[in-house]
Structures are given as structure tokens and as C-alpha cells.
């Protein structure tokens, strides 16, 4: 397995796609029931294979990932050959960026002395999608990139 198995909720959401996946392998509903009951290891392999296919499709389309914690923001842009990062740290223990109040404070004070902004870029490893997946597994959220784009426009 390349990534991780989808959750039960994700499988339920992708029920039709999973049926189509089985159909591409000429597995009928009756055969699937038999596989689950008599060959659970084969069923596990099919679930893992389907999960990897779904993850690949999602990760191919990822362009921005955000990981926002109480005092830090990591904004990633997944470009063709590298991952770009805008990292923000708030040096005020009373500010929590995960709250509406903390984020409002940040919007007013992002150019102040209590906010550090750093940028970096890193070339992908052998598998760009694996790099994206690891960021998501560490708490990153796929976004449309509004926050990254906003910062990119105002940074020198």
C-alpha cells in the first residue's frame, strides 16, 4: 500500500466508484461477497488498491496545503517541480490563530514585530504525491490557496 486505506466513511461516500472499480476487474457483487467471506486477504488487497487509486487522483490535483496551529501557519504551494512554503510564526502567547479572534488579530498585525514570515522552496523527492500526502497526514488541509496567494502578493 502506497498511502493509507480510506476510512469507512470515505468508502461509504465512494460506494459507486468502488463498485465501478470492482467491475473493471470483472468482479460481480456476488463474487465480492464471496471474496469478503472466503478470501479476506484478497478483499483487503482490493480495498488497499482502490484506496491508493483514489489518493493518487486526489493528490494529482492538489495545488495548495495549509497547516494552521495556534502560533504557526505553514502555507504550501505544490508547483510542478518543487513545493514552496510560506511559514508564519506569531510570537505572542495570547494569540491563537485557530480561533476567529486570533486570526482577526493576525490580519491586523501581520506586519508587526510579533509576526515572523519566512519563505522556502524544496524540490520534490522521487514521488511528488508522496510528499503532498505526508503533509496531509501531518495535519495539512487541501485548500484553494487564497491565503498563500494573498501572502505571495504582499511579500517582497
TrEMBL record:
InterPro entries with a match to the protein in the record: DUF6495 (IPR045470)
Domain of life per record: Bacteria
Protein name: Histidyl-tRNA synthetase
Taxonomic placement: Bacteria, Pseudomonadati, Bacteroidota, Flavobacteriia, Flavobacteriales
